[in-house]
Amino acid sequence: MLRTLKRNRYGLLSLVVSIGLVFVKFYAWSLTHSQAVLTDALESIINVFTSGFALYSLYLSGLPKDRNHPYGHGKIEYLSVGFEGALILGAGVYIFYSAVQALLAPHAVQRPDWGIWLLASTAVINLLVGFVLVREGRQLHSPALVGDGQHLYLDAVSTLVSCAALVLVALTGNVLFDTGAALILGLFIVVNGFRMVRRSVSGLMDESDVDTVKQVIGELQQHRQPPWIDVHNLRIVRYGADLHIDCHITMPYYFSLDESHTEVTRIEELVRSRFEVEVEMFVHADPCTFAACPSCTMPECPVRHHAFTRLIPWTLENVVKNERHQLEV
């Protein structure tokens, strides 16, 4: 509950800041009539919509599991990132088109000094708020907060480019610096919008998080016990901040149900202790076969058919496969 409240609070901060900066940037545009400043202001409108949707997604992701959503509501955060990326992508295309039109029919930039100071102040605010959102989003394992913070980083970069363009216009009087900056910003926004959409699709399609998988494998390898003869078919799915993990563990076939349950519980508690987020884990126990004897370290095994020869290390290459890799020895 505390984690949900913190995420919502930071989401609200992003929304309030975005609304305030929109007014500042459009005021700067009204003073300068700069194409680069207009580009920056239009992107900030997208910030308001995306921050609002991100806040709503944070609220939904914090709801408990129910009959219709047995894995919770965390996936909505990836949808939020995709929505944000799609809006940014569309805005980038429009901005690029508008910049081309301005390049064909350039107009004078007025009062660039005012525009420079106003935009510089918004860039500093965006950098600070973006840093806070990314830092807290990673600590809270919130894709929506991280995505929102990264968007503010991009907005700050766009603003700094606009400031640089105004400085060049003020020094040289050449308005082509203004429209050229708008073209660069339009292309930059399109590329980053596409990347956000790509990250959203990866999350919604349950693309494997290699770093998290390696963490789980490393924990199992470090605390490996003799009854854990083999681990395979390890799968990890992230639902917003929460993790769903399942795998198969090969154990001695003569273990009682109570003994197998004890080992499964040890494994689940071991993995859960590795993460600060909620972890839902299911372990399926498989009975061993005699082919596993050469790599089994069970002491005084009453049914051993082959002597132990070598221990097969658990790695990313063999643990994620749906195979008992000891059978390949």
TrEMBL record:
Transmembrane segments: 12-29, 41-60, 81-104, 116-134, 154-173, 179-197
Domain Cation efflux protein transmembrane: 12-205
Keywords: Membrane, Transmembrane, Transmembrane helix, Transport
Annotated compartments: Membrane
Superkingdom of this protein's organism: Bacteria
Residues annotated as domain Cation efflux protein cytoplasmic: 213-288
Bilayer topology: Multi-pass membrane protein
Pfam families in the cross-refs: Cation_efflux, ZT_dimer
Family classification: Belongs to the cation diffusion facilitator (CDF) transporter (TC 2.A.4) family.
Protein name: Cation diffusion facilitator family transporter
Protein source organism: Hymenobacter koreensis
Phylogenetic classification of the source organism: Bacteria, Pseudomonadati, Bacteroidota, Cytophagia, Cytophagales
